[in-house]
Amino acid sequence: MSENREPGPAGRSPTVADVLALPVLAGGEPRVVAGEEHVDRPVRWVHITELTDPASFLKGGELVLTTGMPLPDDPAGVRRYVDELAAVGAAALVIELVRRYHRPPDALVGACRARGLPLVTLARDVNFLEVTQVVHTLILGHQAEAMRRTQGVHEAFTALTLRGAGPEEVLRAAAGMSGRTVVLEDLVHRALVCEAPGSTAGAALTDWERRSRTTPVTDRAGVSGPEEWLTAPVEYQGERWGRVVMLPAVPSGRAFGPEDVTVLERTAMALTIARLTRPTPWERTAHRNVLRDLVEQRHRAPGDARARVAALGLPAEHARFVAVLADLPAQEDTGAAETRLCGELTATGAQVLVGLLSPTRLGVLLALRPSRPWREAVEQVSRTALDAAPGATVCAGSPAGDLADVARSFREAARVAEATAPGLPLPSGRSFHERSDIGLRGLLFALRDDLRVQDYAERQLGPLLDHDARHGTDLVATLRGYLDAAGNKTVAARSAGLSRETVYQRLRTIERLLGRDLESGEQRTELHAALHAVDALRARPHPGDRDR
After folding, report:
1. What three-state secondary structure class fits 95?
2. Is 151 left (phi over 0), alpha (psi -120 to 50) or beta?
3. What confidence tens digit (pLDDT) does each residue in 201-251 have?
4. CB neighbours (10 Å) of residue 219?
5. What is the Cα gyration radius of the chain?
6. With the C-alpha atoms ordered 454, 459, 465, 466, is the resulting torsion angle positive or negative?
7. Strand residues in 27-139 grouped as ranges (E)
8. Angstrom distance (rounded) from CA 223 to CA 235
9. What is the side-by-side strand order in the sheet with 45-48?
10. Predicted pLDDT of residue 116
11. How many C-beta atoms lie closer than 10 Å to residue 522's C-beta?
12. CA angle 311, 285, 541 (to 5 degrees)
């Protein structure tokens, strides 16, 4: 009989269709003559009956086996017989066409069709006791396996909780166990975390807020809404904080089972505990993750970026995007600055994502209406950032017309930050740096770690620097004043508070030490560039340097 003990599909109870496919029944040539659309019903048990009222002995989910001997002769009695089976929730009625009947009675077929009860006929004699034994073995085996899987789910989530796992790890585990997309959203229907095994986040999160708002909130794990989402509430300090959503399987359409409910309930419980134990607001983590993925272009499909940004409440279409970086002073509490900046920007109505891109660098993605002047908007962000973190250096990239171009705007802002030397002046009325501010001085500052720049500075000015170091003179300052005055000795002398003769004498010494002609415009340019390179090499480390 072992050949009949075929395992049922993993993750669910055997259905009517599964049972009919077993060899022990297949030999009877089963044929579904009514209720074909319901053969996916799970079979909880098998019941052999020759009673006229078998429903009184059933609890629901049974596969009812009969030879047809007890069926009433009159159509009304047949309808009553079927009504009682349907009312109690029988999975299906299987009748042998061997003894009393050789074709199913029309009244029986009509009654089963009317009540949606699968009616299966057997053209050949079948050993009902053997059917019962095989199916019960299959069901009990499934139940034991389901219990083992449920225990495994409980143990896995207990381990996650004890380890202090964050929402991303918890949802990743839930998606892996269920094979379904799992999403964490807050009270205002912003999708903060999405784990979509085998598919893209874009497919799951498209038009998320509208779809979520059409799905009613439930007090416990349950299926609701037009898309039949399985949802469970997530709480914080005794109040509803948001919910976790498990999406239906697409395209298979596999229905949610008890194991899915268990996984989602344990997910919600683990998230509720994690919400209490992890101090960083999950909204901040969500912003960080999306920003980093945009900067590093890690989205698996073009629509993913748009869907994830829109699911966090930022317009993803018909907008311009500007990347802004704020490099924070070393002593700044970066987490607090991040929270303050996001809160203050949100209060102004700005549409932004704010998140730490590195230990001392805050990233801001600003979404603007195409008609709004972008520098005006960036100025507002910059002043807010400076209020939240005094001493920060704010740099901006040029606008991006699409999310796909946001990485370029961030790269540009980063290059501006690299070239922003300490004390670099800003145009009047502006508190942030942009690409147009970066001249020769900024370029050399950005290249200050390049050995070729260091070699150039040493070749041009090394003898003069050595002389000042050995004799305590300040000829480099005299050279700087002369070059800043565009070669005007009188202006250089006045600026240094020296006599013209003293300046003339010092310049001759400089020419001798360097072997240069200070009357040559080209050589003056070379020396001026070398001085900027020396300044860049002597400058304090830029706030963002520790993170590069």
Report:
1. strand
2. alpha
3. 778 899 999 999 999 988 899 999 999 999 999 998 888 999 999 999 765
4. 8
5. 38
6. positive
7. 30-34, 45-48, 62-66, 92-96, 119-122
8. 19
9. 30-34, 119-122, 92-96, 62-66, 45-48
10. 93
11. 8
12. 125
Query: Can you give the pLDDT at residue 167?
Result: 92
Provide, for the chain, the percentages of residues in helix, strand and coil under a 3-state DSSP scheme, each rounded to the nearest 5: 50, 15, 35
- Per-10-residue mean pLDDT, the chain, length 548: 40 80 88 92 88 83 89 91 93 90 90 94 89 84 72 87 91 92 94 85 88 92 93 90 90 74 93 83 90 88 85 89 92 86 87 92 93 92 90 92 92 85 73 81 68 83 87 88 86 87 89 88 85 70 44
Cβ–Cβ contacts within 10 Å for residue 141, how many?
14
- Determine the Cα–Cα distance for residues 72 and 319; give it in Å rounded to an integer: 72
The residue assigned the tokens 């909780």 is: 161
Fill in the amino acid letter for 156. A
The whole-angstrom separation of Cα 468 and Cα 489 is 21
List the structure tokens of 79: 């309808």
CA pair distance 303, 314, nearest whole angstrom: 15
Mapping DSSP onto H, E and C, the string for 375-401 reads HHHHHHHHHHHHHHCCCCEEEECCCEC
Residue 426 in tokens: 């800003």
Residue 142 near residue 8, CB atoms below 8 Å: yes
State which H helix or E strand residue 194 sits in: strand 191-195
The closest of 30, 293, 336, 339 to 168, measured between CA atoms, is 293
Strand, coil or helix: what is 28?
Answer: coil
Residue 40 contacts residue 13 (beta carbons within 8 Å): no
Burial of 152 per CB tally in 10 Å (0-12, 13-18, 19+): exposed
CA 336 to chain CA centroid, Å, is 23
CB atoms inside a 10 Å sphere around CB 108: 25
Residue carrying the six token digits 């070398």: 530
